[in-house]
Amino acid sequence: MINLYKEDFKEKDDFLIYNLGKINIVFSTAKNDRSFNRHKDYGINNLNSIVDYFNLKDIEYLNQIHSDKVYIYNGDETLKKEEGDALITNKEETAIGVFTADCVPIIIVDEKNNTIAAIHSGWRGTFNSIVLRTLEKMEYEFNIDKDEIKVFIGPHIRQCCYEVSEELKEDFIDRTNINEDILFKGRNLNLEECILNDVRKFGVKENNIYSLKLCTYCEDEVKLYSYRKSVGTYGRLFSFAFIK
């Protein structure tokens, strides 16, 4: 796995941008207090502004429900009202993205076949291997090349700050078969390790896995939104990718 830091990205306003030729991976920040809450008018306006900002034709996202449901956007009709947590497309000039405020955003890229995916993986999605399910669907529907696949893990609440119940701890240990000393520190869960376990199981090369080392809860240098850190109201980050 390759660790990425803020300096590895192009910073433009409140976006961290990673360019892969025709494909761009973008993680929003809370630098300008801009929130992407799809249930608020200001959030919809901020989402729609991405189209003009990046000179795109459209933007797509799902009504997230902490599931393992994966959709394919083929350009025929919008999926904005569909309930699910992962979106795949090969359509150019359309951003696909996910909302987070501690959960893990994952972007998957196959440059060879011009296919991208955006995944929202909270503890439930992680527990149910939504990333592995997305990779399998990409392979079945788009014949992705395992040797070319790149996986980007974005800002989320990390093991340093993510304490769970004893019951959930036992469930994760039983489910994943990951060494407890790696998966937990006390009751602090390493969501990323679960995701890495599924990504490696699928066959993604180690040097094609990238992790942006930012914790939404305790990061000081980069302002981010965190559900656990907030008191009442909290903003939403939007992590997305597009093909041009």
- The averaged pLDDT comes out at 97
Could you give the count of β-strands?
15
Structural class: alpha/beta
Shape by Cα distribution: globular
Q: What would CATH call the class?
A: Alpha Beta
Distance between the termini: 27 Å
User: Segments where pLDDT lies below 50 for 5+ residues?
Assistant: none
How many helical stretches?
A: 6
What is the helix content?
A: 10-25%
Gyration radius, to the nearest Å? 17 Å
The CATH fourth-level homologous superfamily:
CNF1/YfiH-like putative cysteine hydrolases
Overall tally of domains: 1
Tell me the β content.
25-35%
Order of helices and strands: EEEEHEEEEEEHHEHHEEHEE
Strand order of the largest sheet: 1-14-11-9-10-7-6
Biggest sheet features: 7 strands, mixed
CATH architecture: 4-Layer Sandwich
Under CATH, the topology is which? Answer: CNF1/YfiH-like putative cysteine hydrolases
InterPro entries: Cu_polyphenol_OxRdtase (IPR003730), Cu_polyphenol_OxRdtase_sf (IPR038371), Cytotoxic_necrot_fac-like_cat (IPR011324)
Family: Belongs to the purine nucleoside phosphorylase YfiH/LACC1 family.
Protein name: Purine nucleoside phosphorylase
Pfam families: Cu-oxidase_4 (PF02578)
